[in-house]
Structure prediction request, 271 residues.
Amino acid sequence: MKCFSEGKLGDAMTKNVPIINIKNVSYRYEQEPVLTEINLSIHSGQFWGVIGPNGSGKSTLLKLLLGLLEFKQGEIELFGEKIRAFQQWERIGYVSQKANSFNSGFPATVFEVVRSGLVKKTGLFRPYPKDIREKVKKALDKVEMGAFIDRNIGELSGGQQQRVFIARGIINEPDILILDEPTVGLDVQRVQSFYQLLKKLNQENGLTIMMVTHDFAAMSEGLTHIALLNRQLIFAGQIEEFKMDDIWPQFLYGPQEPFVYYQQSGGHGDA
Ligand code: ADP
Prediction:
């Protein structure tokens, strides 16, 4: 398997340390709990779809994972390190919601957009402009957008812009790419080809992916693992183990009973 960053990935694989390890995390903004006892481990090589309806706590979970919200209950570890101490954020690529909605007047080229994702290096380690262009081109080639490097971002379709933002998300050769509602605003055909691209990045490039979405159609395309979220995890495990009929009522109507069908498969080898 070809890896994005073989050294770091090799490390994580031999030690079998999850890239993301959410341990019994609960969260509330005010009185009402938004997330209850979330347990989720994401290992190298996996492609997770975290799927939930509006209001199910997806954005909250992402904010917790990105260190943007303080939590009191549970623990989150990134690459085996407690999130409060974690600093290697370049190992996590992130594509935010609505990254693909630049209008035609937006004054930036594709090159500039992708370059803006580069973690700044200072002093002796500052890369030469030629190296930067090569890096940007390499990231764009992975999403089949190399030919667009000098185009204005606003001239591209929503689907093409989305690919450019994926390139921005992988410019630092992260160990994992996290995507927040990446298909919002794309038409059905573009959504399909977008999922194909993610599948390719996962299977051919060995990129670990966590995609957070309300799109149930995402279940069918390339995922190795699935987590169904409705304020608590209704299911988390390998896609082959997922039995829709057992889960569906819980998922739609929420956790009204203490019963939770929870199956967390560990290890990266099952990806
Ligand atoms: P999703 O992304 O799945 O739509 P969110 O995490 O945005 O879900 O929201 C989950 C619940 O938390 C919702 O009921 C929402 O109203 C509430 N919520 C989200 N952000 C805040 C906030 N800053 N303050 C209070 N409640 C919030």
The longest helix spans residues 188-203. Confidence is low (pLDDT under 50) at residues 1-12, 256-271.
